[in-house]
Amino acid sequence: MKIDYDAIVQAGNRISAHINYTPILTSSALDALTGAALFFKAEHLQKAGAFKARGATNAVLNLTKSERINGVATHSSGNHGAALARAAKIVGIPAYIVVPKNANEIKKAAIASYGGVVIECESTLESRQATLAQVIEEHAATPIPPYDHEDVIIGQGTTAIELISQVPHLTRLVVPVGGGGLLAGTSVVAARYENVQVFGAEPALADDAYRSFQSGVRVKSHAPDTIADGLRTTLGELNFEIIKDNVTDILLVSDDEIVHAMKLIWTRLKQVVEPSAAVTLATVIRYPEIFNNERVGIVLTGGNIDPGNLPF
Q1: What are the domain boundaries of the chain?
Q2: How much is the average pLDDT of 201-207?
Q3: pTM strictly above 0.90
Q4: Given the DSSP bridges, would you call strands 72-75 and 142-143 parallel, antiparallel or unpaired?
Q5: How far is Cα 236 from Cα 202, in angstroms, rounded to an integer?
Q6: CA distance 141 to 70
Q7: Average pLDDT over residues 169-191
Q8: Residues 108/42, Cβ–Cβ less than 8 Å
Q9: Pick the CATH number of 5-51+149-300 from 1.10.238.10, 1.10.10.10, 3.40.50.1100, 3.30.70.3280
Q10: CA–CA separation, 130 and 121 (whole Å)
Q11: How many Å apart are CA 194 and CA 142, to the nearest integer?
């Protein structure tokens, strides 16, 4: 399947009955702080608490009958796992989710609440992949990767379709980047608009996408140590090819800056988001020379945070 604007529009129609059309939030206080007009796409209010519901639902609904019969499987730090478990439940098939032992407990519980089977592994990408391979072999399940998958990328791109239709004349889009599915899908949509520049927002302690983008060679393994647990994954191969052609730049912020931005979102927008979502506002604050006097679309990607383990 070709990853293009038309495919993303079709995906939006396919999944519309199963996802939330999330609102746009604004804050005059945050506009004044940043010197920009900020428009927050509230994907933390999405089904399963994150934008991941879009890609997972699109991927599952696109499976053939034979691909569905033994269920689906993936590895995930949490949000994609919950989204895939939910999507599998919609069509009545099992979902096997490989999750790192150090993953957010709230996210693990969410996977189980949607009927997903949680299989724990070590926290490295290698362990995730090896454990997933064992699960697929044992259950003959169809793999649905968390980000490096055509249907997932296309589904995530529906976020940008909505955002651009909700807010006219945007000039900047800021999207977190971990595996890169959302950033890739967003960049495909934005490529249709001459005046819209797309920026990836990434923790400095998980900077593989930044290094890949700067060098032109994808970093295949790294050792992330960021508070933004949803962004610890390694940039996907398919995503990188799209991102390097369509994204203006990838910008880094510190964990302290992420926590500060998270506090601002909680106190000014009155919205509970996870660190991986706050990386976007942190980026706008860090780089005023890029965002001052611009109309900026910001994706708040998720709100699945453990209230018993807050970073402040």
Answers
A1: 5-51+149-300, 53-143
A2: 97
A3: yes
A4: parallel
A5: 14
A6: 5
A7: 97
A8: no
A9: 3.40.50.1100
A10: 9
A11: 39
